[in-house]
TrEMBL record:
Keywords: Cell membrane, Cobalamin biosynthesis, Membrane, Transmembrane, Transmembrane helix. Pathway: Cofactor biosynthesis; adenosylcobalamin biosynthesis. It is found in: Cell membrane. InterPro entries: Cobalamin_biosynth_CobD/CbiB (IPR004485). This is CobD/Cbib family protein. It comes from the Bacteria. One of its GO terms (biological process) is cobalamin biosynthetic process. It comes from Mycobacterium intracellulare 1956. It is a multi-pass membrane protein.
Length: 122
């Protein structure tokens, strides 16, 4: 094999299952995105706060948990609509939510950095 063939797809490699490996690597992110988008579209408007509803619904969908329902505050019980359709959240889900929040923040910072370097030509 000479240098010109490095990185070139060959029949042998195409049958080796690189598509399967790529699908396996992308599956968790794809599942996370689909769950977040589905819950966001369906549930965001049901939250009493229009700003918090979108974020809470997306996180509920991404984490596979159900948020909302009866919520006890200091002086009252509020019956809120549920966001997401997963299981009841646990302490481990709180840790996952913090990690997801950190990833979202890092992604937003990266996007802001990329966009700040982009200049339109007059």
């Amino acid at each position: 094999m000479d240098r010109s063939e490095i990185g070139r797809r060959r029949q042998l490699h195409c049958r080796a299952g690189d598509g399967v490996a790529g699908g396996a690597v992308g599956a968790p992110g794809r599942r996370l995105s689909v769950g977040a988008a589905r819950a966001w579209r369906r549930d965001a408007g049901r939250h009493p706060s229009p700003n918090a509803g979108a974020v809470e619904a997306a996180f509920a969908g991404a984490l596979g948990v159900r948020l909302g329902g009866p919520t006890q505050y200091r002086h009252e019980l509020q019956i809120r609509p549920t966001l997401g359709d997963g299981r009841e959240p646990t302490v481990a889900d709180l840790r996952r939510a913090v990690a997801l929040s950190s990833l979202v923040q890092a992604g937003a910072a990266l996007l802001a950095g990329l966009l700040s370097g982009y200049r339109r030509r007059p």
